[in-house]
Write a structure and sequence with these properties.
Length: about 280
């Protein structure tokens, strides 16, 4: 009897492992087709000036709308896109779309704001990135200073030399750079200060703990002070409460982003927000 049970257990596990492998394969296969089938969408989350409440930027956030499935958030498919190399073409699509959207808003007479685009550190493996950005800016007509590229500390860790070349090329064009999720990686501010960066985005894990954890509050205040001394703009992400916002403002954080102000919005809703909140 025990032997039989053991065999069933074995079959159960091997069956579920096959199911997982199959699931992954299906996902990968669907991801390959998602671009051609036009299943990606960008939403835009407003970034506000902390003092005036005016919108100064819109961060483009990607999601995948698989027919017959729930919307897939980026954290559930970007890693697979990176493993398979699909991130290159997906990242290209994001850049084209976000820049074209920003130009559409300009043409509609909406107040000019930066559009922020997240880049995978893998996109820095190719020196073609600068060429691509140049091509997109030229074709869409977006002024380079309206584009902010969000990179993570990972970019500086893996291939510092290549990254430095790409960042300098893009800076010469007038594109802006911010470091996303700052504080979660291992890079020091002194290391980052060697790169021509424009802004630091304080990771939302710090912001979340501001009210409950004095250490998090102290760290957040210190990051803001040091970034300002380096001449960097500071954006706090994941601001959800008035208390967090008050703390950030009191400590000199220039810009804020989070559910307290707005969820990520579809392009029409983002345009309406811009119209209402920019005067
Ligand atoms: P991120 O760049 O740090 O983006 C901010 C994430 O925090 C977004 O999640 C946003 O919806 C969420 N968020 C904003 N405000 C709040 C808040 O007040 N509270 C909480 N709890 N969350 C908030 P999302 O859209 O799921 O994106 C997750 C990550 O996926 C992004 O983190 C970014 O690293 C990556 N990602 C998104 N779009 C792209 C893309 O086009 N390309 C690449 N390579 N990565 C992307
Ligand atoms: Mg980001
Ligand atoms: Mg972030
Ligand atoms: Mg992130």
């Amino acid at each position: 009897h025990a032997k039989e049970l053991g065999r069933n257990t074995y079959q159960y596990y091997s069956g579920s492992m096959n199911a997982m492998a199959l699931e992954r394969l299906t996902l990968e296969n669907n991801l390959r087709w998602a671009l051609k089938r036009n299943e990606f969408r960008l939403c835009y989350q407003p970034q506000l000036d902390a003092a005036s409440g005016r919108v100064v930027g819109m961060e483009a956030l990607l999601s995948w709308h698989r027919p017959g499935c729930d919307v897939v958030p980026p954290d559930d498919f970007i890693p697979l896109a990176e493993e398979t190399g699909l991130i290159a073409s997906i990242g290209e699509w994001v850049l084209w779309n976000a820049c074209a959207q920003a130009v559409t808003w300009l043409h509609e007479g909406l107040p000019p704001v930066r559009v922020a685009v997240n880049l995978s550190s893998l996109q820095f493996r190719s020196r073609r990135l600068a060429e691509l950005v140049r091509k997109v800016l030229r074709a869409t007509g977006l002024p380079p200073s309206h584009l902010e590229l969000e990179i993570t500390e990972g970019v500086f860790m893996s291939n510092e030399e290549d990254a430095a070349v790409v960042i300098r090329d893009l800076k010469k064009m007038g594109v802006r750079f911010s470091v996303d999720d700052f504080g979660t990686g291992y890079s020091s501010l002194s290391r980052l200060s060697r790169f021509p960066l424009d802004a630091l985005k304080i990771d939302r894990s710090f912001v979340r703990d501001i009210s409950a954890d004095p250490a998090a509050a102290g760290l957040t205040a210190a990051i803001i002070a040091m970034a300002r001394n380096l001449g960097l703009n500071v954006i706090a992400e994941g601001v959800e409460t008035h208390e967090q916002f008050a703390f950030l403002r009191a400590n000199g954080c220039a810009e804020v982003q989070g559910f307290l102000f707005s969820q990520p919005l579809n392009p029409d809703a983002a345009a309406a927000f811009l119209r209402a909140r920019s005067r």
